[in-house]
Fold this sequence. Notes:
The chain is an alpha/beta fold. It is built from 10 helices and 14 strands. The protein has a 6-stranded parallel sheet, with helices on both faces. Strands 7-10-11 form a 3-stranded antiparallel sheet, with no helix packed on it. Strand 4 (83-86), helix 4 and strand 5 (125-128) form a beta-alpha-beta unit. The longest helix has 22 residues, at 98-119. The protein is globular and about 50 Å long. Bound molecules: nicotinamide-adenine-dinucleotide and (2S)-2-hydroxybutanedioic acid (LMR). Nicotinamide-adenine-dinucleotide (NAD) is lined by residues 10-11, 13-17, 41-43, 46, 87-91, 108, 129-131, 133, 155, 158, 187, 236-238, 241.
Amino acid sequence: MRRPIRIAVTGAAGSIASHLVFKVAAGEMFGKDQPVILQLIEIPQAMDALLGLAMELEDCAFPLLHTITLHDNVEEGFNNVHYALLIGATPRRPGMERKDLLQQNAAIFARQGKALNDYANRDVKALIVGNPANTNALVAARNAPDLSPSQFTTLTRLDQNRAIGILANHTGVNPKDIDGVVIWGNHSTTQFPDLHQATLYGNPAMPAIPMAWYTETYIPAIQKRGGAILEKRGVSSAPSAAQAIVDHMRDWALGTGPGQIVSMGIASDGSYGIAKGIYYSFPVRCNYGRYQIVQGFDLNEFQRERLKFTEAELLEEKAGIEHLLPKDTEARH
Ligand code: NAD
Ligand code: LMR
């Protein structure tokens, strides 16, 4: 039997985490032979709810779940963790501007970056889910001087899964026979769901798809899917977000399938002309616990414009929280 790995989850009593922790404890993220220790973190006011969740986890008697620990602060909760799932964030309230949310959450993620730097395992892999996820990841990474920017990633797998699911329904092709769907940029309405490299049963997808449907129906549907779910359910997407987190972490830790391309928000290294110093979603492959950007796509004018449009939003977000980015970590990004 393997040694247990330590996984921290922030916002652990919230909607997404309430689905996620059961999947992790059942072995869906790291495999059916990998024991886990869950270090669950909440704000002090939510500790009762967290205790209730821990009781339900205990009641499942999961063989892989070695220990559950509960924490009301990240400094304690991140102790020695191998994986950190940063989900907790302040939700947007009525009357709140996007930039207000950015300020409040960036301050939370600055503290979390420092805590990962000071207390987590040196090889920790962190996934930022709390919105605005890409810029929160930048803040966390820049506040962790002893960790590499590549140890921080953000979630666009939900957007990728949405893009595949909706395409599968439209074309009648099973999701497993669709590959090469790419999400570029920010996890927001400026993201670019790109089908130019996508295949259906190994054949190029674009010739099989009417351009008008692609640009006028499909792209906006993916970009606005989060809002559409919020409007219908009254709460933001949670089960599908939990599934996407499982998919993202499993692929990052255990590797993508042969030839498979997935999308992850990562520190830009300048690939495809995207500014260094932002967390941007790229097509990647993963192997041996590391990701690599898939290079060499020959982008047309339509694609290049979309890549730049979502990049501009991320640069604007970055400008809004520049004061939370320590200067001494700038050169690494
Ligand atoms: P939720 O409000 O149900 O739960 C959030 C939890 O976080 C709450 O229990 C709250 O007490 C806790 N929390 C707040 N600040 C915290 C802190 N500093 N430390 C620890 N815990 C803290 O929200 P949810 O539906 O679970 O969504 C969580 C976040 O994920 C939101 O920001 C949401 O917008 C975002 N989200 C992102 C994606 C994505 O694809 N990137 C998808 C869905 C949701
Ligand atoms: C989503 O994509 O469902 C989340 O980021 C929630 C939102 O506000 O869109």
